[in-house]
Known about the structure:
- The protein is an alpha/beta fold.
- The chain has 9 helices and 8 strands.
- It has an 8-stranded mixed beta sheet with strand order 1-2-4-3-5-6-7-8, with helices on both faces.
Amino acid sequence: MTSPQQPWTDQVIDVGQDESVPVRVYGRRSASGSAPLVVHLHGGAFVSGTLECGSTVARLLARSGAVVVSLDYPLAPEKPFPHAGEAVHAALVWAHRHRVKLAGQGARLFVAGEEAGGNLAAAAALMSRDRQRPPLAGQILLSPMLDPCLATRSARQAEAGRVGCKFADGWRRYLCNAANADHPYAAPGSSVRLGGLPPTLLVTAQDDPMRDETQSFARHLRDAGVAVREVLIPSATGWPASFLEPASVDAAWATALHEPFNQFFKRTE
């Protein structure tokens, strides 16, 4: 059971192809009305990360009134593209099927993720549009890994892309071969067909290596007619590494996310 000391519950869900994955559910349905229901994906450059690593952003979303299903998706290199994205889409279908029990009658479904989880969230939104299920009320992407080239100014400033860089190594292990980098489900930042996606909240920071690709994605979404809200945290955040630290839930940047999350849920009603 959920308790003040452990404000979540753990379970395992079926994501198809004879595969089950653990999830951690934060928050609870209201006695009256409904809450936003969010499927959340942690960071870890596609090759690492756990439910515990994802607890910071999951708890921040829950503090903003959502019921959050944080997914322990399959990792590369054992499960390269497209395994994780397919598991996330299956989790969205599962969450939509159980939305009344999880978050109440009329609960709206969102997908959210940070770093590599932001990539998977964006990919799953594309899949949901293309497969016409499940209906999404919005996507929330924080410092998302969208461009495997790592050639932006903000990435160069962080020395991303060099030999031994965890982001470059993660991309290589996730994609397996260069041809996959052209697939929109692998690299949503390069997708040329973005129309029909749900309203999007994009969050980056001044010291974020993924700042430029996040802002570029926002421009492309707007050009495609998608409603976008951008948030730039001007102070030092240590993103994306600090996302993986549970103690960051009380950092200044974490407090700054409450209003954007809260307003995004309200504006997509």
